[in-house]
Amino acid sequence: MNINTHTGSDCFLPCFSVRNQLREIVGASTNWSDHQQALADRVSLSNMLAKSQNDLPAKRMKDSYREVLLPLGSEPQLREKYLTFHNTVRFGRILEDLDSLAVLISYSHTYNEELKRSPLSIVTALVDKIDMRQHTIYPDCDIKFTGHVTWVGKTSIEAKMHMSQFRNGAYAPVLDATFVMVSRDPENKRAAFVNPLKPEGPEEEKLFQQGEANKSRRVELSTASLLKVAPADEERKIVHSLFLNTLDSKTVSFRSRVLPPSSVWMEDAKLKGLEICHPQERNIFNRIFGGFLMRKAYELGWANACSYGGCRPNLVAVDDILFQRPVEIGSLLMLSSQVCYTQGKYIQVRVHSEVFDPLTSQHNTTNVFHFTFASDRDVPNIMPMTYGESMLYLDGKRHFNQTVES
């Protein structure tokens, strides 16, 4: 298999073969019973790691370019896996495919022809953004995914992907996605260097600069997190205005709160779920597949938005999915979705996932997901009651502003 020399139509893969190709690159076992031996075998690959990024040859963007086909139209037997009971496409399955493709693109960038197996453990660190360019995904038309590396740090990689669907004789754009991947050693314990990226021409240079801007934006957002600093002056005014709107005019008491018309208390806009993480959902490193986590979080968030708006909402954007720690096989994964901001027809949903250890009763956050949905009608206003809920409201508003309004 010669990944880094493939270009054009030679990169065209059927969707189901992506996982198989990743297993071949890493040398992962296909049998759960063999996973411990496979992990032990990877430890010996540590001596293949570069001591410095300067020791690695620069790669071009086209070296990592991949095209993957999901033949929903030409191979009807595949449809059932991707269909909802409304005969629409399950977007959670699309998230799984995007995650697998982002990993394959990253391995294509770092591929070394002289090595039979890659010593790198490349995993998803962040879904920076997914923008929907059209809401309808047809269940009987072929889907094509394309993408390549657009920016590289010392140990991190940004992969941009596009999804289009064949309809009326041509492929039409459906969504654009930006994933950030991180490179680790064979045991996935410490960072490992990746090949530098050499842009060719003004268009690629623009993509690379956009990657630099994305990194700076993420640092800025992290610095301004409401978990670290107080809200801005304008945000404090919003919180106070929400508080005043819920005061009981008869008692004029700080304790007495009244729900305004066409509104829902934030406490009443939650939906929770639990997943037992079985080996079937493992990735090539025998931890729970990030795409599976995204699918479960999306489906819970969609169900919450559906219940809140009283209709089947459309996804508008996925924003800032942070993978804080891996989820081990056998974990009890607790998912909690919260409608945290609304505006007109839009519903902003935050899904928090954590691993619960029943033996120690400890809870550890693994992921935070942000989804923006649109209803076919105006939805009730979400109203925070506590200070903590007000911070969730402001955080939801920030994510809404940087996805929809931007």
TrEMBL record:
GO cellular component: mitochondrion
Entry's Gene Ontology molecular function annotations: carboxylic ester hydrolase activity; fatty acyl-CoA hydrolase activity
HotDog ACOT-type domain span: 64-187, 267-379
Gene3D superfamilies tied to this protein: Hotdog Thioesterase
InterPro entries cross-referenced by the UniProt entry: HOTDOG_ACOT, HotDog_dom_sf
Subcellular compartments: Mitochondrion
Entry keyword set: Hydrolase, Mitochondrion, Repeat, Serine esterase, Transit peptide
Primary location group: mitochondrion
GO biological process: acyl-CoA metabolic process
Family to which this protein belongs: Belongs to the acyl coenzyme A hydrolase family.
Name of the protein in question: Acyl-CoA thioesterase 9, tandem duplicate 1
Organism: Scomber scombrus
